Amino acid sequence: MTNLDGGTADWKKSWAQKRKENKPRGISGSQEELIHTGFLNDRELPLVVEPSLRSVDLIDWLRSNMELVHRKLLQHGGILFRGFGLKGNEGFARFLEATSIPLMHYREGATPRNQVGEKVYTSTEFPADQRIALHNELNYVQTWPTKIWFYCLTAPAVGGETPIADVRRVFDRLRPEVRDPFVEKGWMLIRNFGDGFGPSWQSSYRVQDRQQLEEYLRSADVPFEWKDGDRVRTRQVRPAIARHPKTGETVWFNHVAFWHVSSLEPKLRQELLSEFGEKGLPYNTFYGDGTRIPDAVVAELRDAYDAETVQFPWQEGDVLMLDNMLVAHGRSPFSGPRLILTSMGEPCSDRGLDRIA
Questions:
Q1: What is the 3-state secondary structure (H, E, C) of the chain?
Q2: Which of 35, 207, 294, 356 holds its CA 20 to 30 A away from the CA of 79?
Q3: Residue 35: its pLDDT value, please?
Q4: How many CA atoms lie within 13 A of 20 on its CB side?
Q5: How far apart are CA 93 and CA 343, in angstroms?
Q6: Over pLDDT 70: what percentage of the chain?
Q7: Is residue 1, in this structure, part of any structural domain at all?
């Protein structure tokens, strides 16, 4: 591990000013001894921040250094805080509070989650033997989080990593022949609620009845149609590529590969297609004009994600902080107990954001 890369002067200035104004209790030693940073691999993702002294309090440090954290997050896309001894839900809540980042409710989601605190949830209740593909959280809605955190309460004995990938690099890997149709057309997500697959429309949209759902969907500009048996179909057309609101960098920002029919296991795919058809599936993705995305295109998208994927074993007390527009995340299968909490915040809206179709 090395001292904070590329930021020693800023580091010293930040901490010197803080120590002058209000010396932190329980912290001693020279500036360079307080925190070490480094990487787990040659991708420089995530940046790992660890204490050099047992007396370093992560909460105090965050309150004094969030400007530096934000800058490093934009550079690397993800920061792993490790070895600070955070304990329980309360420790995570204190961490989130120290960042001063406004948190968000989980709405319009697709994965089963249990709420365990104020805007804090289990990361997923998806079956342990199944893999969750890489994705940027809620990038199919009009307002999504730009920050997301994962906190390890119980590390799994085997597997259960949270793989991540820099979607700036994913975009760069795509051939123009693959990217250009998405630039021109965007992408479409069709969801069908009420067939017994995935969450209900009540739980996904956090509503109680049809009227509340219709009001919400209209406010979000989401076309919908009711089907027999209290079923509803929604269509969302979104840009597939975006510019980061702070860096201006181009990012691959969609769920095209995640929900495309070709991503299903072959047997399940055939069964669902036979019963529901392509536009009646619980989830499916298309070009923004409603035309089919070839399986070969989606295979290339998956290959680009795979080529940029990095992962690491969880350690209890770890907090992984991601810029949700720069880095996608997923979950590996696992065995044994696993408890990862998540929270998301700093909302960003379609309105006024420079997005590339």
A1: CECCCCCHHHHHHHHHHHHHHCCCCCCCCCHHHCEEEEECCCCCCCEEEEECCCCCCHHHHHHHHHHHHHHHHHHHCEEEECCCCCCHHHHHHHHHHHHCCCECCCCCCCCCCCEEECCEEECCCCCCCCCEEEECCCCCCCEEEEEEEEEEEECCCEECCCCEEEHHHHHHHCCHHHHHHHHHHCEEEEEEECCCCCCCHHHHHCCCCHHHHHHHHHHCCCCEEEEHHHEEEEEEEECCEEECCCCCCEEECCCHHHHCHHHCCHHHHHHHHHHHCHHHCCEEEEECCCCCCCHHHHHHHHHHHHHHEECCCCCCCCEEEEECCCEEEEECCEECCCEEEEEEEEEEECCCCCEEC
A2: 356
A3: 87
A4: 6
A5: 10
A6: 89
A7: no
291-345 pLDDT, tens digit each: 999 999 999 999 999 999 999 999 999 999 999 999 999 999 999 999 999 999 9
Could you tell me the pTM of the whole model? 0.88
Residue 23 domain-assigned (yes or no): yes
Contacts of 228 (CB under 8 A, 6+ apart): none
Structure tokens at 96: 């989130």
Domain range holding 101?
A: 8-126+146-155+312-324+337-356
pLDDT band at 166 (very low <50, low <70, confident <90, very high): very high
The per-residue pLDDT for 22 is 36
The owner of tokens 């590339």 is: 356
Structure tokens, 117: 């605190």
- Residue type, position 56, single letter: V
Q: In angstroms, rounded to a whole number, what is the distance separating the alpha carbons of residues 286 and 341?
A: 32
Determine contact, residues 77/323, Cβ cutoff 8 Å.
yes
How many domains would you assign to the chain? 1
Residue 120 domain-assigned (yes or no) = yes
Which residues are within 8 A (CB) of 226 and not within 5 positions of it... i.e. 6 or more apart? Answer: 210, 232
The token pair at 189 is 């997500």
- Beta pairing class for 319-323 and 78-81: antiparallel
Residue 98: predicted pLDDT? 97
In a domain, 133, yes or no: no
